[in-house]
Amino acid sequence: MRHPEADSLALDLRAIMADAFTPRDIRRGRDGLTWEFYGKLVVPANLALDQWQAPFGRLGYAPFVFQAGADDVVLARPAAELLPTRPAWGLHLLLLLVTFATLTMTGALLQAARAGPLTVTLGSILDALEQHGGAGLTFAAALLFILGAHELGHYLVARRYAMLITPPFFLPSPPPPYGLGTLGAVIAMRSPVPHRRALFDVALAGPLAGLVVALPILALGLRSASVAAFAVPVTPSLLASGLAWLLRGPLPDGVQLDWFDPLLFAAWLGLQITAINLLPIGQLDGGHLTYAALGRAAIWLGRLAWLVLVALTPLAPTWGLYAIIVLVVGLGHPPPQDDITPLDRSRHLWAIAALALLALTFSVRPIP
What we know:
alpha+beta; 2 domains; 4-stranded antiparallel sheet; two-stranded antiparallel sheet; 54% helix
């Protein structure tokens, strides 16, 4: 074995792994802080990690296991880089309140737009809030309920795996015509993801929880929405249009549902945000799901999906905005601690179900 740069710490880490891993090479990481051990596991990766967590931690490190060519690789990262930070509750609350305000303005402005062209000035916003404030509040509350359920799903499953996770960061955006009041919400992991199963379960829990809340709101909106003899520039997803047909039946020619009804539009937008999150890109829920199912090959799928977003931009400029956001966040994906043990058959079936949910909730050209 050659380890020309190995110091006493690296040798201590190697000694911890002696019963579960046969190393052939030790290398210092490019950052000068991590250590990479190349060799072969002699026990399953999950059992090795269970055995190493505590002794690695006492030395200030956390173990990660993945494959590189013919080698199994144990990566020892300084645990200080993975320590949780205290939640910035003030920031989380501020973003929630700002998002609630922008969504309330969005709901009111969409109602005001029925009477004529939409112009956004301080006066027009105040007039819209005065005349349609109730509709704005209904829209904001319904959509935040959906988004909150989505993030709560992530949070509860992450805590089940003893992972540390931040409260949600709600992301406001300008009201129409420059935006729809929100870009959704995100959370951040503050501890390593232990294995692909945990990564998959945490990622899937959000869209499923959001769907459980969105469907009743969608049904209520479909039942209460009026019909009108004018074209509404909203293209519903297959799920929304299918449920509309079940609850309202076929409508006469020239008559359409009012998709800007506050409850109905909140449910529609919640489902659209769910679809965006299910795209197999980087740090989106779909990126987590595909990485858990496919490993590092998922990164290439994410790059292809990102190119599709760029290609869709001429149809709806919002896709260009999301393409920029996910590019800034990154198209790559950090590995879990156990990046070797594959998913079981039932989770692969759930991955197919998530792909079907993406197809059912995605609108290529939601609003021209």
